[in-house]
Specification:
Layout (H helix, E strand, L loop, with lengths): L7 H4 L9 H66 L4 H21 L14 H14 L7 H19 L3 H12 L10 H31 L1 H13 L5 H22 L3
Helix pairs in contact: 2-3, 2-4, 2-7, 2-9, 4-5, 4-6, 5-6
């Protein structure tokens, strides 16, 4: 018994219709968007990490050295004021006393209150960095063109940065969950409108990348960063520059106290 041959037309898979020009452009732009957003996430992480490290370093500096400088400048101001009181007609002595007091006030204001314990250095765990990347990829405000959504993302991103700097992994995870379950996380799709949104998002991401680059360069050029470099380099030789600075300042404070007690100028 002869069998029927299969109809080649019946087994043929229907060909997909060719993509329209705007659909092809949308695919290209989406690829560009993904690449830029990935770069943005990494740059945000590096800048936030640098900011956190410098903040922790500054707190340690103020704890070990800054408060001592404030104390030293206070004694110097008292010495200058004592000399000015002994020479009321000496305008140079009066001016020196005013300048010393202003410098002491500025130093005290910048140093703040001395903490009971030495602040810890900042070092993010791999899990913290992974969480931050996830948050930045999902909720960064520069990844949306919707005004209300952007405002929500800005608030959440500020909280995320604060949580990161505090080493709060639970807080970071909570922020991501909070946004994922929010109404703003849902967005409708449409080929024409989506192309416009993607183009705008690309523009926003490029703008943010430029801002991050400027901020990073400013941090790297700062006196605080240069001091940290010195401290890090010295630590490789077993030296603690901040403690050395603190010890030297303690000697100067002791000398200033002695002079003040003896009434020496």
């Amino acid at each position: 018994m002869a069998t029927k041959s299969a109809d080649p037309k019946a087994s043929r898979v229907p060909a997909s219709p060719p993509l329209k020009p705007e659909e092809m452009e949308l695919l290209r732009k989406r690829e560009e968007q993904v690449s830029l957003e990935s770069e943005l996430t990494e740059r945000e992480l590096r800048t936030t990490n640098l900011r956190a490290e410098l903040g922790a370093f500054e707190r340690r500096y103020l704890h070990l050295v800054g408060t001592r400088y404030a104390e030293l400048d206070e004694y110097k101001a008292q010495l200058a004021e004592k000399l000015a009181a002994e020479q009321p007609d000496n305008e140079r002595a009066q001016r020196a006393a005013r300048e010393a007091r202003a410098r002491a006030s500025d130093t005290k204001s910048g140093a703040g209150e001395k903490a009971e314990h030495e602040p810890r250095a900042f070092k993010a765990s791999p899990e913290m960095k992974r969480l931050y990347r996830d948050v930045a990829k999902r909720i960064h405000p520069d990844l949306t063109s919707d005004r209300e959504d952007r405002a929500t993302r800005q608030q959440l991103m500020a909280r995320a940065n604060e949580a990161y700097e505090q080493g709060n992994e639970t807080g970071l995870a909570k922020i991501l969950t909070e946004y994922e379950s929010s109404p703003e996380a849902f967005r409708g799709e449409g080929p024409g409108a989506e192309l416009v949104r993607v183009i705008r998002r690309i523009s926003q991401v490029r703008g943010r990348l430029a801002e991050i680059e400027a901020e990073s360069q400013a941090l790297l050029r700062s006196d605080l960063y240069q001091l940290r470099l010195r401290v890090d380099e010295a630590s490789q030789d077993g030296r603690d520059v901040l403690k050395e600075m603190a010890a030297k300042t303690d000697q100067q404070i002791a000398e200033a106290k002695r002079r003040l007690a003896e009434g020496a100028p």
